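Field: COMPLEX_INPUT
Field: COMPONENT_COUNT = two
Field: RESIDUE_TOTAL = 792
Field: MODE = joint
Values follow.
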Amino acid sequence: MATEIAFPDAAAKNAAAAAESQSESMSLSMGPSHPSTHGVLRVQLEIDGEIVTKADPVLGYLHRGDEKIAENMTYNQFVPYTDRLDYLAPLANNVAYALAVEKLVGLQIPPRCAAIRVLVSEMARISSHLMGLGAYGIDVGAWTVFLYSFEEREKLYKLFEELTGARFTTSYTRIGGVARDVPPGWLEKVGAFCDQFSPILEEVLALLARNRIFLDRTEGVGVISATDAIAYGLTGPNLRGSGVALDLRKDRPYLGYEHYDFEVPVGTKGDSYDRFAVRGEEMRQSVRIIKQVLAGFPSGDWFVRDARRIFAPPKDKVLTSMEELINNFMIVTEGPQMPAGEAYFEAENPKGILGFYVVSKGGGVPWRMKIRSPSFCNLSILPKVCVGEYIADVVSILGSLDFVMGECDR
Amino acid sequence: MADFYFSLPPLLRGFLQGLAVVLVIFPIAGASSLAERKVSAWIQGRPGPNRAIVPWFAAIPFLGRFLQRLGLFHLAADGGKLLLKEEPLPGHVHKFYYTIAPWLGLIPAFTTITVVPFGAYWDSAMQTMHPLVLANVDIGILAVFAIGSLGVYSVILAGWSSNSKYPFIGSIRASTQLSSYEISMTLAVLPVFMWINSPGSDGSLSLARVVEFQSGTHFLGGLWFVFLMPLSALIFLIALFAETNRLPFDMPESEADLVGGFHTEYGAFKWSLFFVAEYAHMIVGSAVFVVLFLGGWNPLPWVPVASLVHWFHLENLPFVVGLVSIAIFLAKVIFMIFFFMWVRWTLPRFRYDQVMRIGWRRLLPLAIANLIFYIIAIALLT
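Field: COMPLEX_OUTPUT
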């Protein structure tokens, strides 16, 4: 009513003013070279002031064609390439890959080998989560947490080096076993590490978990509902942070995980803080598993003894017996001989479910290999979860998803 | 020597004073950058910079090794590198503003330090202490705020002239943040100046006078303002963190999301000027905080330097008294700088909107309430 009396052209003026005050959105390319995109992820953002209106992940800056490479080499030769998938947990990748190929041939590994693999997988989980937690600290501005957790990770790497000969690119598993048995005295060192690690872990977690600023930055930020998490194919701590208790170690146990007593932590709200908290709790559970493995560490073979065409014979026999020498030569040059067929195996890796789909037409080289990488699927939710958040929160969300571009781009 | 100095023409004296500021602040800023690396290393359980060594120094028995461990040569090497490095001027920048922006950050910081008293000398004729200050202007704190707040232009211009998105966002954040916290900062120090100016008499905003009021020996006279007005001190300190762009308020350059913030496009010497400016602002801020709330150059509450003079019979050694007071003052400033670093390497960073919310919804009402409380308190006391 009032407008009719006073301003006949008010509507037009209002419209013009509204058009003028309409803020212009700006496109911002975050990455591929950016301190917080953890590698070479590029997020094409559209921002309205400080608010993100659109987020488009652009992938492929680290694409190496791992799946195609796999078709051109023997099964054992591909093990080093699995190191470079999730390069923060190479041992877990080695194990998952070996298990997938062994599933193809239906190989049963001896208990000692399974125990070693569980041990290294859980150690890899701790080292990966330590890195994820520390990097998350940097993302929200807390540098010190990173260096605290890095020191512990360094101790783990020392242990890896002693076991595999390499700190980073471990290449530890072979089809039908592992590269070498655990060195004498190594298990005690792992036990000692676990004992000193637990209090430090509590300290590192306390640095963040009770920090008001950290809570402000993470609580209610990047909320992923359970439905969304399932719909986008999230796995690992990201899925469990949203309250879905999917853990293949419990739901589809492999390597004898059913014998170990551990819990699967889940979040309640699905925000960044829940994902952080789930990772913290998973490290505690991993320590529990490692202690149980160490307590009942089986003796016996650490490779499959009767798989003559798959696992190369022990070195001492190779140098003394003609039969074994020829066998070794054949396995090294032509690869472990697989039957024709296909197999899909997925393992619960630190970042989520890592799956290998191996198609064989017989012989020592896969005909096709498909890798289901958890980081790739976890990142798919980025366009949905980033919209409406602040620019600084994009960083916080990326950190909480804890992805690795090596495995995302493959 | 003092007489010779005072016999110089005022222009030359002013020049010498300016030179003194540069020669004092630059090394302190440099030392602060080394201290930052050492303090962060200490907090994070690392050795920090401890490798670089100049060959001849390595031959000195204990000292050479000590200086190497201290990382002193890293400081020299860094400084030398930044000086000698090629000065890049990206093609897409506005050249004039891009070039002057770092200087605009440095000048206010160096100018404000001139009005901050940093010590006192013993006047044996008058049996009192006189403050040592380059320019004892009556508007003291007002000059600090007025000139110090010009530093924001440096950040805005740097971000804008870089013609790049991350610096642009950084400079916009800086302009809002710096102007928001200035209000709380000013309101927080008002009670101090109401306290030292009795109503009706000639008012003064001189910083030296604030220290004078904390140099007494009786109950209220000797009490440092941090104990008398803890809330003011707290608000001022928080605002200081925001004004100096230090974590947890380092929005303008939060490297996690904005890469380098407003100085992303800068390199070599221009970048190092920003660096020095940041530390210079920190030093000035710490010095002002020490003067306002931590009793200036007085060693302890109720124990002014004048008492030391009487206890240790230093009446005839004015230079020694001056050096002692400067040393005490510097020690406090260094503690404040350490505190800045301590916080930086301990806390995570706020988000931009949280910074704004704290500034406007928490600090500002608190500062106003604090001011009203002291208005009533002072009115009742007088």
